[in-house]
Write a structure and sequence with these properties.
binds 1,3-dihydroxyacetonephosphate; 5-stranded mixed sheet; 14 strands; binds iron/sulfur cluster; alpha/beta; globular
Amino acid sequence: MASITPIPIQNYALLDDEECEARIIAAKAELGSRCIILGHHYQRDEVFKYADITGDSLKLSREAAASEANFIVFCGVHFMAEVADILSRPDQLAILPDMAAGCSMADMANLVNVQRCWDELAQVLDVDATVTPITYINSAADLKAFCGEHDGIVCTSSNARKILEWSFERRDKVLFFPDQHLGRNTGYGMGISLDEMVVWDFNKPLGGLTEHEITQAKMILWKGFCSVHQVFQAEQIDSFLQRYPDTQVIAHPEACFEVCQKSDYIGSTENILKTIRMAKPNTRWLVATELNLVNRLHEECKTQGKNVHFMSPTLCMCSTMFRTDPQHLTWVLENLVAGNVVNRITVPERQAMLARRSLDNMLSLS
Ligand code: 13P
Ligand code: SF4
C-alpha cells in the first residue's frame, strides 16, 4: 500500500539537474548515516551517481536487509522497494522516489490469476504435494506472500538455479512466475528438456494445456516476459558475429531462449558487469541487457581497450526505471531532512510476514 503525493511542480518538477545536484548533495550530507540510497544498475546516470550502493536485485535486497540506516531510498522499481520494506526493521522506512516506477513484467502476474492457476492445477494434481511455487523477485508482494503460504520461494536472476535445485529436492514440479524466459533458460541449463516445460497462458482455462501436458511437465512457466529484453534476437548475434567474429556474447536470462543459447555467458546485471570487468583487455562484447548499464560499461571499459556493444539496433531502455529522476530524488530527500516522509512503500503486515518467509527461504540459500 502506498500513500501517493504528487511531486510539487514549481519547487521540484521544474528544477534543472544542476540545481538538483547541489540540493541532493546537501540533503545527503544533512541526513548522513540515517539515509542510504540503493541504485539498480538500470538507473540512468543522472540518478545512478548518487547511489551509496549499486547492484542487482539480489545484492540490493541483501543490502536493504543489512542496512543500519533509517531511510532506505530505493532508486529502482516498486517491487524492489517492497522487498526493502518487507526485510526492514520496524524503525526503518522504504522510499521509492517516483511511485510510478513499476515493472511491466511484474504486472503480468497478479494474485487473482495465480490463485486461479493454483486452483485449476489442483483439479489435475495433488498440487500442495507436487508443486513448488517460485516467484521471480520481479513480482508484487502479494505473490511473494502466496509463495510463503504454499511452502514456495523467491528467486532472482542470479540465484535461479539454486532455487530450482532446492525446489526439485522437495517436490516434482515447479510453477514459475512471472518470467517464462528466466524459468526456461535456467531449467534448460540444469538439463531439463524443453518437452518437460509447458507455458501457462493465464488467459485460458487450464492455462491452455491438456491434463496430460500438466501431469507430464516438470516446469509450468507463466506466460510473462520483459518487454525490454524481448528486443534482443538471435539474428542480431549472427549478424554481429559476421562483422566481428572475435566477439563474446553475454545475455541476461530474461532474454529469450534462442538468444541465451547463442550466448557465451548468461548472467544477472551484476554478473554481466563482473564478467566484462574481469575480462582480458582488448576484448569485444555484445551484451543483451538494458541500455543504461551497457552504455556505462562501455564508457568504463574503453580505457582498457574493451569494446562493449548493445545487442539490439533499436535502442530500448526500461521506461519505468527511467522514471526516477534527480527531481524526484531531491524531493524525497529534502522532505526527509524536513521530517516528512513522502512516497513510503508499506506492505501490509500479514502479507509482509508471509512474503518474508519466501524471501528468507531464498536468502538462506544465496
Ligand atoms: P537483476 O536482478 O539481474 O538486476 O535483474 C533485474 C531486472 O529487472 C532485470 O530486468
Ligand atoms: Fe521489469 Fe524488464 Fe524493467 Fe527489469 S527491465 S524492471 S524486468 S520491465
